[in-house]
Queue: 3 jobs
Job 1
Amino acid sequence: MIAYTALSLARTLGSLGNCALLSTGHSKVLVDVGFSAKRIGSLLEAVGESLDAIDAVFLTHEHSDHAQGIRGLAKRADLPVFANRDTAEAVQAKLSKPVNWQVFQTGTNFSFRDLLVRSFALPHDAYDPVGFTFNWGEVGDLFSPPRSLAWVTDLGYVPEHVREHIRNVQTLVIEANYDEDLLERDERRPWSTKQHIRGRHGHLSNHAAYELVEELSKNSILEKVYLAHLSKDCNQVDLVRDKFACLQKLLRIDVIDPECGITSADVQLSN
């Protein structure tokens, strides 16, 4: 059994943070650390894991809802933190302790333990935001067959190169950040902020995410989708579920609640 455990996946603008555990037969890694190290430790304990057992961290970009936990995690001097140069420099500039940075160039492939990692650029309002694909397992291995997962949050639209990357994975984590009507009616955000959220370096709406997943359901090896990074103010879990209901016959689809996330029991991937 290989488990991909989403600890909590939520959006900024008043929400919590982003952090997930990817656990394979030989690796336990965190993708983003948008909570304090103490909070991440508690979330891990809730799914039977611990911070001491984490082998590495992968950062998508420097925004605090994705990277604030690095401050506390830096106490583990041996913990590798994978990030591109712009992200590493932006995060390190706010810290007093050095981090065990493992710097990669966006667009390159590299390995960590049993993981083959591919990085690719995303259109978002950060220094050099990236998505990741993770591949692990071996053909013919009954205990650890080939598996693949893509992590794609914080992007204003989906360029063709991103489509090509995620077309070749079995599991996709993709943001469904906002409902168009709720964002339009929101009285807390000025027009300029709403335009930024809708823009090409903002976030994906429920409809944009749906169009992408519908396309992939017809022309990819995709099996499982996690809809993540929901805005607490401008989205609702039920709206997202209703939007994607017609695709449930083709794919396993889970919506990550920004209030409570989901647990490993919800997202185990059987070999």
Note: The mean pLDDT is 89.
Job 2
Amino acid sequence: MNIFNFEFKRLFKGNIIWALVCSVLIVMFMLFFPSMKEMGMQELVGSKLESLPEAFLEAFNISGATDFSNISDFSAYVLQYIVMAGGIYAAILGVSSLAKEESEGTVEFLYSKPVTRSRIVTAKILANAFILFIFIIIVFIITIISTIIVKPDDVKFVSVITDINKIYLGMALISYVFMTIGFLISVFVKSAKKATSIALGIFFASYILGIFSKLQDRLSGFIYLSPFDYAAPSNVIKNGFEEKYIIIGLGIMIISLAGTYIIYNKKDYNI
């Protein structure tokens, strides 16, 4: 029995649906860009932003200097919602991965085969990681095409590609962190039906902690509990990647996966 193939096929349809929905949103977002330049929307939006406290804007990855008539600033702002969707999808994949076998009663079938628990976990991790990679590649390609279509003539193609590359590399880091956290939590979850609500809870709890960290200096340490802020689009476009966040992200992945293997191998499923 090839667990990888079984898991991949089971996840593929959902993957395409997520990719299509996000692709439609990307196209809609990017088609709105020309109006930011041609209809004077930047002046209107800019005046509204200037009336808000700088700390509040920063908490939501915006600054008073954000120019929505600039393709890079506009892309960073709208694509943060796609990055958030990617993080949520990744968390759902992780949380439901191992819980699905127990809730659907297929864990008994798996254990009746000559495979170790570690092999089961490895196959599921690889299948989910590949599915997530396909999702990221699809939305990345759609973003490239959409951005090239609407970009101003005076903006260099290389500049656009570079910025989008940064955004999606950041998305990959954020998504795989959430996926591995989801895997660790999946060991304790008995019902796959709860996966979506748990994944949403994980993502938005960490996201809110990130907001608090930027609103209050005494809560600044909370930002390390918010994987989204490790590579928020507006930050990576303006400042690039911070080494400490890459190290923390990789550390979370390693610890989460190690914990998944250890706990899953010791877990009693009473079969």
Note: The chain has a mean pLDDT of 86.
Job 3
Amino acid sequence: MTMVHSAEPAPAAEPAGQQPAVAGVARLLAEYPPDRASVNEEVLSRSYSGRQTPYQWLARAVSNRASLVCDLACGPGRMCRELAAAGRTVIGVDTSRTELQQAQRNSAGPWVQASVARLPFATGSLDAVTTAMGLIEFSPLPDALAEIARALRPGGVFAAIAPTFRPLGPTDLRILGRLSGMLRTPPRLTGSLEITVGPLLNAAGLTRAEDRRERYTFEVTERDDARRLLEALFPGASAAERLPAAIEYLMSPVDGAPVRLPVPIRRIVAVK
């Protein structure tokens, strides 16, 4: 049976080359009824550029030779499943016990409850670290990047995806602008991350090797689709009084076809 571990607040660094130390292995968590997957994971799992999802694009940034990989802010574990390969150990880390319990039901793990501020891994022990959307969640981000760099071996890879402002076309901007006006809040894109991520990586001892953007689309076919997408893109949308009107707007076919809302994604790859 797969265990969900809880890490102590302050993991001790171990000599490079040893297996990562998961500090404070606590207890096997009781089985709870399945929890609904996070909204972000649902949206990213159904966003496509061609036949590729953002998770698949992120997984391709990790070398087949990487045998010990950690996915941060793993949620219910979709990225960990994309990374799974013969001979590879993928460790999912998240602060949410609820999300880790769902991940445990979905795949083998191992799963660790811990903060990116103090990762329970030996210094220089990980071949790769990934995160889908963690760059806009980790705070303070400089400290998180420094801790990721500490856990990576020399030559190890950090790969992340995050929302971005581009590429967006005129139709994309018109739809997002209309929804922003209806919900009275801007879409949750990147803010200062577009400008600062390069210097922050350098300060942490990571060298940016790739910085690419790709336009994905999410097809809205049901009202639940529209709600999930709005909750993922617009902070506070679930509490907005005009949410029903925004859902109806997304349910209105364009030239007889379902609305396809843009989900622009940025992939950043850095090497220690």
Note: The first strand starts at residue 4 and ends at 6.
